[in-house]
Structures are given as structure tokens and as C-alpha cells.
Amino acid sequence: MRDSRKRQELVRQVGLEVGREIGARTILFHQAIANMVGVTITDMKCLDYVDRGGDVTAGDLARLTGLTTGAITAAIDRLEKAGLARRERSETDRRKVFIRIAASPATEKIGPIYDELGKEVSALTTRYSTRELETIKDFCDRTIAIMRRQTEKVMELEKRNRQE
To answer: Which of 16, 84, 103, 114 could be bridged to 79 by S-S, CB 3.0 to 4.6 A?
Structure first.
């Protein structure tokens, strides 16, 4: 009986409180960085996809984020103006334009912040066994999938509401 109550409490905490707080803290962290360099949080998440993606085009960003191509163009314009990104034509297909991280005072300003975050999270992982890390990764992967599905549902609902 005691274990059942403890499990119920942990399910509530992990499924609701912890997830909500991680989400809020993540958004507030990225908003603070966006404010520092004069762009929006959405612009920063686009930059994150650029940083992770290698050869990323505006179309790729639109697909990854669900934003319109017009919204992506505006985000890239703001990222360029802030010195965080640059457009670069493909050497093999001149019609393609890749978005790249720019080397600039702005990226030099925020780089150490992300480096410090990475170091702290890396240090945190040393507290957990390989088995525990596998469980944490599984939970996070499944949570990401849920968030992706829920985001798609909201975007579809918004699209239907605009058509009415």
C-alpha cells in the first residue's frame, strides 16, 4: 500500500510538476538569451536547429518548426541582423541556400552560456548508472514524441479554425 501511494505521488510529480517546471525553466532560459542578443525565442530555436542540422535550408526549418516559410524568412532575417546566422549558397546547387551559424560578437557572447549549461548537465549525468540513463533517455524520447504529436494537433486545430 505504501509503495502504491509513493508511486502515485511520483507519477503526479514527474508527469505534471517536474515536466511543467522543466518546460517553463527551458523557455525562460532561452528567452533570456534571446533578449540578450535582440531576437525572439522562436528565432533562437530556429538557430538551434541550424546548429544541430548541418546543411539546413529555410524549407527545412519550416518543416522542423511548423512555421510558415514567411515566418521562417523573417526569423532568418532577424538572426542575420543580430549576427547569429548567415545565408550561404550551396556550391553544388546554386538554387539552394543554407543557413549557417555566424562567427560574430553575438555568437561569442552566447557560446559560453551554452557551454556552461552543457558542462553542468554533463556533470549531472555522472550521478546516474548506465541503466538509469537508459531509462531517463527513454522517458525523454517518449515525452518528445508526445509533445511533437500534441503540437501537430494544435497546429491542425489552428489551421481548421482559420479556415472557418
So the answer is: 84
